[in-house]
Backbone:
């Protein structure tokens, strides 16, 4: 489904492999590009704000080009800069119908605030964790999207154009990146008028993520006898109900299913 | 322990017989000496245990012969009431309330809020904001001092913009010291970020530890930790703090200015039906799992279809070629987290039991009453699986028809 007069921009970032820590195509952003390519085809624009200093970052950016993009617009920022302002300024000039991004970045603060901040600055509506855009009506300026919910459920939402949507991991997997198109694609540098430094961030202390402690069962016994009992006694609650006979069991099972609300 | 009252005729007889060596006077009031001092008889403490040795239990749980007279019913502990009549400041917590109840994440957030409200002798009030249906009855023991509840029909649906606007009104009115939300996929994470963008505040996301005036947040998609000063708005992870367990709170309904209705750009069209077998096994909420005891696999598949359950299998069923490998539940397959797990003809190997460790309710259908799965299950049906499944399918269809008829009327 490609729509001819729809302008879509996918925001992309550089991911980081969780084990090797090498820069890579970010998984959620690649899904945003995939969804954008399905909606707008070749007219999908990709926008990247950040540094392009090291060659490994360029390789990672080119892996997005390998998905079939003609070019990537780059806003070259130094590392502690605030990307939101630069992006907002660029997007204000573009006025797209739809902006797609990942839910959260794979490095940096990864707070997931970007779509919300952009929506606030551009005056667009924002929606989170979508998996599919089922239809777009340019006349009524409305789109129908599917949102991912926990436990694999989907919710259908109608949203007004223009909007910003973050794409969930449950969306269609991104297509493979091809080497030829990746090399042929262009990285277009854009002029930046402002560059605001993120001063708050410089005060933070960033460490390697600690393993979170496992929650212990706390025994709040007042006496030694109670503590002894808590440490030695078998967990009560025992075995459940046992029913015999097919019709009775079916009734009991149905009752439990209805009580749990899964039917 | 059962709470059946049991008489002990022998103890009663001893109590009647004043000449019995174990007889103690029944009316054992406080004994005062000649000078008015309270006298205690040290020999009367404790009781003689079953093997003739004197036992002293200072917990007060058992007091010799009279213990058997009391029924074993546990007395309900009434926790002390934590009263905040004139709070110094407020802490606002917006709850997730999945299906109208507090979940573990909500309770942890409330625990953290209470911790922040009672730092250094200060007395703040925790204001819980609930949207939509509220079925939870234990809000007081979870640590809610004040409650603001939005419950009109509009809140039954997904309306994050309206909720965010309401929170903005509350924040403006109460000027809370902290605003806490669960950083979850059940709506808390979305709402908190919306609020942060509207308020123009920088939130701490993924907070998992609060140390004095420092917070530790997960960053870089879980690879790094950021230590920063305590901000106003925090999106906290599960197990960030212990839930409240030692106090009861007032949970007073708080009067509020009328919320303004805003023009929403998002319209909820309801959940759509998903093919249960398209849901990844690890996320599925309702699993029908088959094992070695199943002889009629066609019946099993049709049952799963009519129950709208995701299909799972034990290792034996997979090895025998009855089910594909990706459907295997257990240590070597998928670790499932289903709310309801029906195990048909699975006896319960250790590896399989590990895989279903996180399941909420387990239903076993088996011919063998002594198998491990029956011991684990909350409900066990003993009998031929195909008969029980057939019966279940007919009941479910009947139930669905009735529901359909109710809708038509």
Residues:
């Amino acid at each position: 489904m490609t729509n001819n007069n729809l302008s879509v921009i996918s925001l992309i970032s550089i991911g980081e492999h969780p084990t090797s820590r090498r820069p890579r195509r970010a998984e959620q952003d690649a899904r945003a590009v995939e969804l954008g390519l399905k909606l707008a085809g070749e007219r999908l624009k990709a926008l990247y704000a950040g540094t392009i200093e090291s060659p490994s970052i360029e390789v990672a950016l080119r892996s997005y080009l390998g998905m079939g993009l003609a070019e990537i617009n780059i806003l070259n920022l130094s590392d502690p800069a605030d990307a939101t302002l630069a992006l907002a300024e660029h997007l204000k000039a573009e006025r797209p119908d739809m902006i797609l991004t990942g839910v959260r970045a794979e490095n940096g603060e990864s707070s997931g605030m970007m779509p919300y901040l952009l929506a606030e600055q551009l005056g667009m509506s924002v929606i989170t964790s979508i998996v599919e855009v089922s239809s777009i009506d340019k006349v009524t300026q409305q789109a129908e999207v599917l949102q991912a919910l926990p436990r694999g459920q989907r919710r259908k939402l109608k949203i007004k154009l223009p909007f910003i949507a973050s794409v969930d991991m449950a969306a269609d997997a991104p297509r493979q990146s091809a080497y030829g198109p990746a090399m042929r694609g262009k990285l277009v540098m854009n002029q930046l008028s402002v560059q605001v430094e993120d001063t708050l961030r410089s005060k933070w202390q960033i460490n390697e993520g600690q393993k979170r402690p496992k929650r212990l069962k706390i025994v709040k016994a007042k006496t030694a006898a109670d503590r002894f009992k808590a440490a030695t006694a078998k967990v009560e609650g025992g075995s459940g109900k046992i029913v015999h006979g097919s019709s009775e069991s079916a009734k009991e099972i149905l009752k439990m299913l209805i009580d749990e609300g899964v039917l | 322990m059962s709470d059946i009252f049991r008489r002990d005729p022998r103890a009663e007889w001893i109590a009647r017989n004043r000449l019995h060596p174990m007889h103690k006077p029944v009316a054992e009031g406080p004994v005062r000496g000649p000078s008015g001092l309270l006298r205690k008889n040290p020999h009367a403490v404790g009781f003689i245990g079953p093997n003739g040795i004197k036992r002293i239990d200072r917990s007060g749980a058992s007091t010799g012969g009279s213990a058997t007279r009391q029924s074993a019913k546990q007395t309900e502990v009434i926790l002390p009431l934590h009263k905040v009549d004139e709070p110094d400041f407020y802490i606002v917590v917006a709850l997730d309330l999945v299906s109208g109840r507090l979940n573990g994440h909500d309770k942890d957030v409330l625990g953290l809020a209470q911790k922040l409200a009672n730092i250094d002798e200060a007395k703040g009030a925790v204001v819980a904001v609930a949207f939509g249906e509220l079925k939870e009855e234990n809000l007081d023991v979870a640590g809610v001092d004040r409650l603001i509840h939005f419950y009109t029909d509009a809140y039954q649906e997904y309306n994050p913009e309206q909720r965010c606007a309401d929170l903005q009104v509350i924040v403006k009115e109460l000027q809370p010291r902290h605003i806490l939300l669960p950083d979850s996929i059940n709506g808390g994470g979305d709402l908190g970020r919306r609020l942060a963008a509207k308020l123009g505040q920088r939130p701490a996301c993924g907070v998992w530890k609060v140390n004095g005036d420092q917070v530790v947040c997960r960053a870089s998609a879980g690879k790094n930790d950021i230590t920063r000063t305590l901000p106003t708005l925090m999106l906290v992870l599960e197990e960030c703090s212990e839930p409240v367990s030692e106090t009861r709170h007032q949970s007073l309904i708080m009067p509020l200015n009328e919320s303004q209705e805003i023009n929403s750009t998002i319209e909820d069209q309801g959940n759509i039906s998903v093919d249960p077998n398209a849901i990844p096994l690890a996320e599925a909420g309702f699993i029908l799992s088959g094992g070695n005891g199943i002889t009629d696999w066609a019946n099993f598949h049709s049952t799963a279809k009519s129950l709208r359950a995701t299909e799972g299998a034990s290792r034996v069923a997979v090895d025998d070629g009855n089910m594909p490998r990706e459907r295997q539940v257990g240590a070597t397959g998928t670790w499932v987290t289903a709310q309801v797990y029906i195990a048909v003809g699975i006896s319960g190997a250790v590896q399989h039991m590990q895989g279903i460790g996180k399941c909420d309710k387990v239903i076993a259908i088996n011919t063998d009453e002594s198998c491990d799965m029956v011991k684990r299950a909350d409900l066990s049906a003993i009998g031929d699986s195909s008969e029980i499944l057939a019966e279940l399918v007919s009941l479910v269809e009947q139930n669905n028809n009735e529901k359909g008829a109710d809708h038509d009327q």
